[in-house]
Amino acid sequence: MKSFKRYLITSALPYANGPVHIGHLAGVYIPSDIFTRYLRAKGVEVISVCGSDEHGVPITIKARQENKSPQEVVDKYHNIIKDSFEKFGIAFDIYSRTTSKVHYQTASEFFKKLYDKGIFIEKYTEQYYDEEVGQFLADRYIMGTCPHCGNDRAYGDQCEKCGTSLSPTDLKEPRSMLSGSKPVLKSTKHWFLPLDRFQPELGKWILQDHKEWKVNVYGQCKSWLDLGLQPRAVSRDLDWGVPVPVKGAEGKVLYVWFDAPIGYISATKELTPDWEKYWKDPETRLIHFIGKDNIVFHCIVFPAMLKAEGSYILPDNVPANEFLNLEGEKISTSRNWAVWLHEYLEEFPGKQDVLRYVLTANMPETKDNDFTWKDFQTRNNSELVAILGNFVNRAMVLTQKYFDSKIPAVAELDEYDRETLSQIPQIKSAIERNLDEFRFREALKEAMNLARLGNKYLADTEPWKVYKNNPERVGTILNIAMQITANLGILFEPFLSFTASKIKKMVNLPQNKWELAGGIHLLPVGHVINTPELLFEKIEDEVVAQQLEKLRRTKEANEKASVAVTPQKESVSYDDFARMDIRVARVLEAERVPKTQKLLKLKIDTGIDIRTIVSGIAEFFAPEDMVGRQVVVLANLEPRVIRGIESKGMILMAEDSDGKLQLVNPAAPVANGSTVK
To answer: What is the CATH number of domain 387-540?
Structure first.
């Protein structure tokens, strides 16, 4: 691997229309913070930048809902997010925002340079326009009937009931969410970034030069590149955002996907006058920490922007994580199904590192993972309290008791002592190896293995039994135990910074340098340690019960807020029903549709033929779970092309009150093609 003079770490800009939850932490901010703290501990020149993403349609929608201005909305949530990060111990060098003057200037200049170079394509498109309000409508401001499932509250970009991606013109009976009137199509000019022009360069850069990227990142990029990149609009008709800085662009702003990543650059500008060495010097290693929903923007779109500008470096790695679920269900901000960071900090004071530990241990590095309050309790009680906390406390208390809080001398090492000491540098190397390759779960496991090593060593040697007859032997045992403790103070710094600080304070660590970790002489003989204190405390059942009850009330409120039973539709004749060919089929093959989160491509045996059906069920069913199952399909539904795939039919599903889908299938196996009457 190439060596670099410095590192620039960016973390995905959290969207300022709500607080931060545990999914954000596990996906982006904890791995980013671990890696940054690791580099700092090693003495590497590194800066970490982040900030609030404050533009885009969801902000304006939130403002309408709360009867506030967009600026009031982003001010509120920016302050909540910033405060939460600070209290949680996320050590950004700067936490900025995209409504800053520096950002407006930086984004405008970036656009203008590409514009002056003739990079953009200018073209007119047909877009819905609300004549009553006198405004072009963003996709999310248009609602209508989904052509796939009949949901009459589908948005212009997606039907949230069946999961199908839509264009506004796909909707039946479209209506404006601003006035309720029927919008009209009107021509409007926009600027497009020709991603296809950069495909050859991006293809080589990713597929050939960065095969070391995580499988989930590399695979998603390859999927997009294989399908062929298309020009993407960089402007939109909206009154909230960075104005497009060219003549004739009145009423238009930079699209948020173009505007937001430039926020990394503007934040660095705010932080240091030497910002260019971090963005334009090839000796800088740029790493983006993001969630999987941002992979394409950071691996394809933003690099294309940087290539088009011409003077910036490209990211060397984008170690994106997958999603974290909560108690077996997808985290949903709209349904309040989340553990919010600012609420956790209030309800669990002083327990930042407990959450950091649990989220790191369950980090969704290569696949979606799950957070449960029971696991939170178990990991705290069985690992943090019983292993790490127990070992450090025993080593400290025994040294205080038998040697007056002074590090004792080593008399003679036996084979077990030497074996134990030899594992300390090995564990340090394993931590480094895993952190260098962005395997944070494994790195944390190795750090905890050092505490396990110490716990086992004390349990096996039993110094409290040996002291009366052989105090010199106990001196050797406790010297080794305290050297392990001092190592824990250094090696846990990237993971549990509050706990590491407590350990280092208790052992009165003379030198806090990563390079010294792994050593067995961190604490010299005669060195005086401070008074021991407990690092962690048990979490009782009632605490977990309170959190589960909180989630139960949330689910109950969601069920009450939703319509428990869908109103009956208009009556149809028997002949209308008889025209529908509903039959039982079996799934032969299943795979995800590239660049979508909700679509599965299924090969179906209907008994009359083998056909393909595209279904928006990927949130609830993995492809491997569908293969071999019998399903009920509407076989004579008019074929429709979805994401370039001809879909011939529809799988029938049952939807419960919280939006979860269940398969409709026969109670016992029947022949494929059996009709439903």
So the answer is: 1.10.730.10
